[in-house]
Specification:
It holds the Pfam family Ldh_2. It is built from 12 helices and 11 strands. It has 2 domains: 95 residues, Hypothetical Oxidoreductase Yiak, Chain: A, domain 1, CATH 1.10.1530; 191 residues, Ribosomal Protein S8, Chain: A, domain 1 (2-Layer Sandwich). It is α+β, with helices and mostly antiparallel strands and 340 residues long. Strands 2-3-4-10-5-6-7 form a 7-stranded mixed β-sheet, with helices on both faces. A two-stranded antiparallel sheet has the order 1-11. The protein has a two-stranded antiparallel sheet with strand order 8-9.
Length: 340
């Protein structure tokens, strides 16, 4: 009989495991709570590549001295509708948590507000930064730039990061509409996971050593040259994120990788911006009805689904049944905990 290759963990066990690894790597109680929650949500909703498999990347960033495990971010209001954060060389999610309450209050007061943050790192799905704002009744748009790995359309070398973006909005009598996506055809972490699991990608997602588009995850990891989604259209979105993320916040440009290279890290100290909008202050009292109608036109329309709703099915299943975690991943995490 073949031994099982996975172990079923409850979401509470996933979170506890993540927190244990992060604390062993030097994170304090608050920071480890924030990031462990991100890890748990990723295992629950997907993509799983941003979950427990991502913990060694967090740990490496701390043990190499690249990121601050005990970061104490600061947040300051610099205009009536603008908050500016300094992540203290820690992870963006911790700074965003510090800004959360004030950002919501400012959006309700002004109709629109923004939080921008520099001197910070980000790993994981961006949707977990926008969903809490939608739960507070706001429309939210978030962007962050990342290390250069995406070749502009027609180019031969990377300029942009995978430069993700996320959108969220409230939905009456249902969970908020929440989606996120990379500017690349496939997220870098998904390529890493495909290589680790030994399978090809469903479509060409990067360039091989000869400059040809390929589905081979190992070949793409070797060149670190990903393709933008939608050719020139995805490259334009990556440019937008570079401006709203790095340039607006004052974060590191995606091409400025020297510090990252020196520490062997898989991210840069980019810039992040989130814009929060209160639909109640925009003059359309029927906003909720519009969202309901848009969603209704999509649901039941062949195989179409509301963007991001696939996560809700994953969430419901994981909350009841837990998630199956690779024994290899668990063994790796156990080693990290014992080294802490």
């Amino acid at each position: 009989m073949t031994a099982p290759s996975t172990k079923l963990l409850s979401l509470a066990e996933v979170r506890a495991l993540a927190k244990s690894v992060l604390v062993s790597a030097g994170m304090d109680a608050h920071g480890s709570d924030v990031i462990a929650d991100v890890i748990m949500r990723s295992e629950r909703d997907g993509p799983r590549s941003h979950g427990l498999r991502n913990l060694p990347v967090y740990v490496q960033s701390f043990t190499s001295g690249y990121a601050n495990a005990a970061a104490a971010p600061s947040v300051k209001r610099i205009a009536p509708g603008v908050l500016r954060g300094d992540g203290d060389n820690g992870y963006y999610q911790i700074a965003a948590r510090a800004a959360h309450t004030e950002l919501i209050a400012m959006a309700h007061q002004n109709g629109i507000a923004a939080f921008t943050c520099t001197n910070c790192h980000h790993l994981g799905a961006l949707r977990f930064d926008t969903e809490p704002l939608a739960e507070a009744g706001l429309v939210a748009i978030a962007v962050i730039n990342s290390l250069s790995s995406v070749v502009p359309h027609g180019g031969v070398r990377p300029v942009f990061g995978t430069n993700p973006m996320s959108f969220a909005c409230p939905r009456e009598n249902a969970a908020p509409v929440v989606w996120d996506q990379a500017s690349s055809t496939v997220a870098f972490l998904d390529i890493k996971m495909a290589a680790a699991e030994g399978h090809t990608l469903p479509r060409p997602a990067g360039l091989d050593s000869e400059g040809n588009p390929t589905k081979d995850a190992d070949a793409i990891l070797e060149t670190r040259s990903l393709l933008p989604f939608g050719a020139h259209k995805g490259a334009a979105i990556a440019f937008l994120v570079e401006v709203l993320g790095a340039a607006l916040a004052g974060g590191t440009l995606s091409v400025d990788n020297e510090l990252r290279d020196a520490h062997g890290a898989l991210n840069i100290k980019g810039g992040a911006t989130v814009i929060a909008i209160d639909p109640a202050r925009f003059g359309n009292a029927a906003f909720g009805d519009y969202i309901t109608r848009i969603c209704a036109e999509i649901e039941g329309n062949g195989d179409a689904r509301v963007p991001g709703d696939g996560r809700l099915k994953n969430r419901a299943s994981a909350e009841v049944d837990g998630v199956a975690v690779s024994l290899d991943v668990l063994a790796q995490l156990e080693t990290l905990t014992s080294q802490g």
